[in-house]
Backbone:
């Protein structure tokens, strides 16, 4: 079926078959494929409305300014999207290239992300491996997140039975890192030249810090099994903030 570029909404639904939408422009787009492959090129929609859904198949998107994507029991490959809302469940493989704004909800998935400016993630029984993120907000449950490069902010107020691994890439751009783990682990690596106000606190758990953090004050409440480290790294009253807290967890702060 050939449909020319036009100012109308395009709605496609297919079962037990494939849908291939090459570079295409329309008013709005909705495509749903079940038991098949959905492949899209460079999509342009006047109303910035692009809804893609795959069930028991695969979904591939080359480029779109704004997209709402759902996938169940499918593979997902998105090369580029400015504003992406992605909801995936039981996905065999999820690959995301470059995003400006990413809202990711995952259950029982393994996700790889190349880079994002702003990312909000909600993971359950999932794993996210990210190369570079400027700002990340998230919540984890029985999940793991590994970010090779965090530029400005990391905010994970709730991580249950989960592991957080992150590395701050730039002392100049960094603003804050906040994370709380319950029955899990937090591992944060920071550059040696970083200056920040620091608060580490763990209940019924362990805190591991580099020997170079001599300016941090250690206190312990043995009756409550609470250990904490507070103080400044580098100069006092630095604007950057690090706050890592937990219970029944392991908190690690190291320099690179």
Residues:
């Amino acid at each position: 079926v050939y449909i020319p570029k036009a100012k109308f909404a395009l709605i496609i639904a297919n079962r037990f078959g494939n849908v291939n939408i090459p570079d295409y422009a329309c008013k709005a787009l909705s495509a749903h494929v079940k038991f098949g492959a959905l492949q899209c090129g460079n999509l342009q929609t006047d109303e910035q409305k692009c809804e893609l859904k795959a069930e028991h198949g695969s979904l591939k998107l080359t480029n779109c300014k704004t997209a709402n994507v759902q996938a169940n029991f499918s593979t997902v490959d998105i090369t580029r999207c400015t504003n992406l809302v992605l909801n995936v469940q039981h996905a065999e493989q999820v690959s995301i290239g470059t995003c400006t704004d990413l809202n990711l909800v995952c259950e029982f998935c393994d996700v790889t992300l190349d880079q994002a400016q702003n990312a909000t993630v909600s993971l359950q029984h999932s794993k996210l491996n990210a190369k570079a993120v400027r700002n990340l907000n998230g919540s984890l449950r029985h999940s793991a997140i590994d970010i090779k490069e965090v530029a400005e902010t990391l905010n994970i107020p709730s991580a249950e039975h989960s592991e957080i691994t992150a590395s701050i890439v730039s002392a100049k751009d960094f603003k804050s890192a906040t994370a709380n783990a319950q029955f899990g682990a937090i591992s944060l690596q920071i550059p040696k030249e970083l200056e920040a106000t620091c608060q580490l606190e763990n209940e019924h758990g362990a805190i591991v810090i580099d020997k170079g953090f001599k300016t941090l004050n250690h206190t312990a409440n043995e009756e409550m099994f609470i250990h904490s480290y507070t103080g400044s790294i580098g100069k006092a009253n630095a604007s950057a903030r690090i706050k890592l807290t937990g219970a029944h967890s392991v908190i690690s702060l190291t320099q690179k």
The chain is about 0% helix and 70% strand. The CA atoms of residues 164 and 186 lie 5 Å apart. The longest strand covers residues 144-160.
